[in-house]
Amino acid sequence: MLMNILQPRYQDQIGRLQLADGSMLWNVYVTTGAIEKLSNAAADEASLGQMADALREIASDKVRTGQTLSDTIWIRSLDIHKAH
Predict the structure, then answer these.
(1) How far is it, in rounded angstroms, from Cα 1 to Cα 8?
(2) What is the largest CA-CA distance in the chain?
(3) pLDDT tens figures, 34-71
(4) In this structure, what CATH number is given to the domain that contains residue 50?
(5) Domain limits at 22?
(6) In which band, very low, low, confident or very high, does the pLDDT at 78 lie, cut at 50, 70 and 90?
(7) CB-based contacts of 12, cutoff 8 Å, min separation 6
(8) What is the pLDDT of residues 15-31, one digit of tens each?
(9) pTM, rounded to two decimals
(10) In terms of C-beta distances under 8 Å and separation of at least 24 residues, what long-range contacts does 17-24 make, across chains too?
(11) Residue 8 · residue 20 · CB < 8 Å
């Protein structure tokens, strides 16, 4: 499954991006806590963009395990493990 991250942006204290796999498109929301935990820096658009590979991996895992709400995926600080 080849998934791509599209349109990462940080707005209203939430990271927003899209995960695309062929014709499927998921809206991915990343909490400020998850961004800060993953990047070890303040949450902003630059740190969100730098974490694209890790976010793609986490979001893909959530798709594979059925942890989506329709076309929506939430990534919270509890989803961040030291392996990422």
Answers:
(1) 20
(2) 34
(3) 999 998 888 888 888 888 889 989 999 999 999 999 99
(4) 3.30.160.140
(5) 4-79
(6) very high
(7) none
(8) 999 999 888 999 999 99
(9) 0.86
(10) 17/48, 17/52, 17/55, 19/56, 19/59, 19/60, 19/63, 19/73, 21/63
(11) no
